[in-house]
Amino acid sequence: MGRLSVNLCGIELSNPVIPASGTFGYGYEFAELYDINCLGTFSFKGTTREPRFGNPTPRIAECTAGMINSVGLQNPGVDAVITEELPKLKKCFNKPVMANVSGFSVEDYAYTCEKLGAEPQVGWLEVNVSCPNVHGGGMSFGTNPEAAAEVTRAVRSVTKKPIIIKLSPNVTDIVSIAKACVDAGADGISLINTLLGMRIDLKTKRPVIANKMGGFSGQAIFPVALRMVYQVASAVNVPVIGMGGVSSAEDVIEMMLAGATAVEVGAKNLIDPFASRDIVASLERTMDRYGIDNLRDIIGGAHNG
Amino acid sequence: MREEIFCVEANDVLTENVYRLTLSGNTEGIVPGQFVNIALDGLYLRRPISVADAEENRLTLIYKAIGKGTEQMSGLLPGDYLDILTCLGNGYCLESSGDHPLLIGGGVGIPPLYYLAKRLREAGKEVSVILGFNNADEVFYEDEFSQLDCDVKVTTVDGSYGVKGFATDALTSSYSYFYTCGPAPMLKSVYYKTNTSGEFSFEERMGCGFGACMGCSKKTVSGFKRVCKDGPVFRKEEILWED
Asked: Chain A: which residues have CB within 8 Å of chain B?
């Protein structure tokens, strides 16, 4: 095991860096730019039972040190992901991949997770109960402990692969939701999804985004994400994946000190397509600078004393 | 797609708020109809700008200063460096042009047609161009197209220069194929008033510009397409007007 490797729910990652769902497609756009096998793994585009176009455009707004998106889970549906996307992905990525799943009912989640869980390439199922951009699903499952637990139980019953529940920060008490998911059988928790946000165009005097609101991500949200990772990591006994504004090797280390076993990089991939590769490449020298021998040893380090 | 560092050579004023940015750097592989995505200090998202010309080691971009990013660009000075993603988008299909292609551009939709006209002229095509503006003060690049030996017509909505009316009011029937770029109402008008096949370059607010975020999706007859990666150029037969 190298000094960067970590164990995520029973599967070893050569390093803790994971491009986040929705910022990395199914990998092959980035594989044209660099060998994506340098990554710990990546979480592919959120997949639903049926194909979805998503929300009307404009879907993107800029913010100070971040952005808002309202894509609305555009994806080709689970069957096309299995028959078209995964074979393409296999050609450029030879590690277990993280399958990100969304749904509009408990049955949807179970259906999609059962199908993706049966794919040998899939190492983990990251279950998104936190998409702020769809109605009647997504985030509504992640804003109440009982609903989040129900999705977790349903998914638990259809797969033996590790289940990671991805939580929304748009809640009063994220810790109670995380605990409910773990009690219902989750093998890990990932957080945070985007913060619900909005921009208004001063020229048109109307919201920039067609759907009015969207998910705020990027560097600006890092302190909020870090705080929530710290809170959840201290309350649950399963691995936590930290994400939200992570943009550098320093941010990765900070997230791990807060309790993250692995760290997802999101919006940064969209403004710098080489960001995840460069973060991996700079981890060791950043560890040296801060006197860290081994990343595994620092997980949750900020909770001590 | 490649990430390159470019150096500002000039940032010339063409009209009241339209600028021509000339950059030196690696332009290898850039084809007409593609765009570049520029990182600007202090702004989170890159700014996608269409390519007006690409020669060896020299990139020309023409942009209108209308928002935070483009206004900041208007202050760029010779010697400034820019981090730019190049070779983005599909570009126009030059092989489809036939012998007498028609290029129809509106306002800041005109720049990508210049690089296209240049390549079509190099291929020996007889190129006609219609350039549409609101008024005489907004007119740019008429001479540049003429210097390529294109047949150039200019229209202005208020009639203060050239033919009075919209670009589509100057359409003739003698062209083998068309290429167009401009505001959405113009594109729609071109779609209904042209009598051959052709290609449309679309604009959309983008996140990444290279196909990862699904921010700029568009419905087409052949399914959902990303304007940044599958476009920005779409064939007439692919287009679905949603409204």
From this structure: 22-25, 29-30, 32-33, 45, 53-54, 57-67, 69, 71, 74, 208, 218-219, 267, 269-271, 273-274
